[in-house]
Every structure is written in C-alpha cells, then in structure tokens.
Amino acid sequence: MIPRYSNPEMADIWGDESRLGIWLKVETLALEQMVAEGLAPKEALEAVKSKGKFDTKRVLEIESEVRHDVIAFLTNVAEYVGPLARYVHRGMTSNDLLDTTFAVQLRRSGDLLLKHIDELLVVLKNRAEEYKTTPCIGRSHGIHAEPTTFGLKLIGWFSEVARGRARLAAALKEACVGKISGPVGTFAQLPPSIESFVMNKLGLGADSVSTQIVPRDRHAAVFAALGILGSSIERFVTEIRHLQRSEVREAEEFFSKGQKGSSAMPHKRNPVLSENLTGLARLLRSYISPALENIPLWHERDISHSSVERVITPDAFICMDFMLRRFIGLVKNLVVYPERMKQNLDSCHGLFHSGTLLVALVDKGVTREDAYRMVQIRAMEAWEKGIDFPELAAKDTAISSKFSEGELEKLFDDSAHFRQVDYIFKRAIKDAEASR
Question: Which candidate, 76, 85, 123, 104, places its Cα nearest to that of 13?
Fold first, then answer.
C-alpha cells in the first residue's frame, strides 16, 4: 500500500542513487579540506571533482563480491578517477560516511514532513474557525457529557499537531549530526577541522562524543516523535470514525461521485480513509521499539543497528509522509452536519445542565453531597422517562426553592457553555506559534 501511494520525493531520498550521491559529496568535501590542510595533493581534489562519479548498478555488482557497501562504492569511484582516488576516504572509517549521510537524509526527509505538518496546521485552523461556534455534545466514555463546539474539537487537534511538530523538529535537530572522527571517534588519522568543515558545508551538527558511530539515542528520539504524531492522527481519525457512525452522523469523510462503499450493500459510505490511517499508525508505532533496541551496542560499535535502520527509517518516513498527506485531504474535505449535531444535543433532554445545577446549588449553601443527590434524582428520571431535565428540576420544590424567579431559566441557558471559546482559540494559536 505505502509504495504504491508514496511521495516520489520522499522515496527518492532513501533510494540507492540519492544515498550514493550524498556519499560522493561527503567524500569530496572531506578531501577538499584535506587538501587545504596539506593532507592530500590538490590534483586529487581536481580529479575527483572532474571525474568523480559512480554507477549504482556497478556498485551493487562489486558489493555482491566484496560484501562491503562502502568499499564497493570507493572501488567504483576509483574506476572513474584513477590512481588519485587513493586519497578519497583517507583516514576515514565507513561510518564517518554512513552516519553523516544518514543525517543528511534525516534532515531532508524531516523538512518534507515539517512542510506537510505546516500545511495540516493551516487546514485544521481554518476548519476550526469555520465551526468555532457550532454547538455539539461533548462525550466522555462515549456518553453525552456537556456541550462543546465542533470548532473546539478541531482547534484541539490543531494544538496537538503543533506540539507534534515541535517535538519532531527538536528530535531532528538532535539527530541531524554527523561525524568524521575515525574508527573509534578519536580523530587519530584526521584532525577535527576536517569534520567541522564538512558538517558546516552540509548544514549539520557534529556529534559531541562519537565512537565509531553517532550514538543511537539521537535517532530513537526521531522514531518516538514520529510514533507520537502518528498516534495523534489516529486519535483524530478515531473520532471521525465515531462521528460517522450511522447512529451519530455528525461528520463524515467526503464520498465522491462514483465511489463505492461495499461490494454487497450499495448504501454504504464507510470511513475508509480514517481506518487506513488507524492501521498505519499501528505500523508507525512498531518502529519505536527497534529504534530503542538500537541504542545499546557493543563497545564502540557493532553492526546490529544497521540492518534495522535500513528497514525502519525509509518505511517510517514514507509512512508518516503518506499519513500526513492523506489526513490533510481528509480534514480539508470533511463533511460536517451542524443540524445533526443539534439533534444529538437536544436528544439528551437537557441533561448536560446537571453539572451547572450542581454548582449553583452548592453556591446557594447546599452541601455538595446533598446537591449531587438532588440533581441525580431528577437526572435519572429524565433518562428513564425521556422527560426534559430542566422542567423536572423546576418542578422539584427542593431545588426551585433555592432560586429566585428567573434564576433557574438563566441557569439553563446553553450559551453559558460557550463563553470561553474565544479565549481557548486565542491561547491555542498563541501556544502553537510560540512552539515554533
């Protein structure tokens, strides 16, 4: 499913051609600074810049024989450059190349995801503003609670995505570091200035203390951030799935002309996009565990993390890219039914005023225990008989006697639940902007 609908721009970042292209760039930059510091002849750099290239098919062919990807690459480059290629990779270890390239790939992939997240934030904010004052019933445990607005629901999603963006951006900053510090990170063969030059040119940080590799706690944070963001999307689409249920039908995914929902039942309009995103979130979360397992490696390095990363990294980024693009379209085209929301709001016979009445009775001097009992008696009667709760409360002299004329009527005004909507919106938008 993912490869079929994947974004070519994201997929290309993790392809062999792109990876080897970054390898050549890293090696060329390192050689450039070696020449500047007198560690390699100028002719070597000129040869690499004029002749240096690779053939992906040939690299893979050599690798099948030597069983080493970096050696295969260097061998192929040497076939084009000639004898001066001996200065390429001088004093470097394989992971100087691999981990620095990995950081470049993470940054490029991360930039694409952040771009999609920014687009999603705009869509969520716009739709939240559209339904800012549209009343709907709030639910806890799936049961009617107190009124909210559909806009508040959406601005809550906006706020959560903004946190997810900040979390991912911070994790990427931590992970986008490289190293050119040699076999165990001691700069035994090359001075730190080579590393500084290369990282500066690539726009990366340099790992503070590397071994043969960049420690994998940095990368685990990225997978955790992706998993959390995926779980947030799952939370949102789970809500959409609930709202699309026939018994609720307050919102639903856009159903295009000619679309089919079921092979057996022509009337069906199923939340297939939301269900698809739910499944992908499960997959995305599954990458967190192996990323954590990659942290504890033997001594200064073993290779157990490498095979894992070659699978989970492109998969995770391609998966997240797909999820964001799909969710953007889902929210943008979400069909909302305010009339149905009002019907559902009215269907609970005004029971959502129970908490307001409880507080009002306490404010009138009734103990909380007695107030709760008084309100619950009438609330249960409203549930069981389908009678209007405010009317029952008004007829109960034990309740009505506590209030002056007109107080109860004012107490049962729905608008009281929406007084702070503007405040919540402003705070959510302000906090989102601050998180950037």
Answer: 104
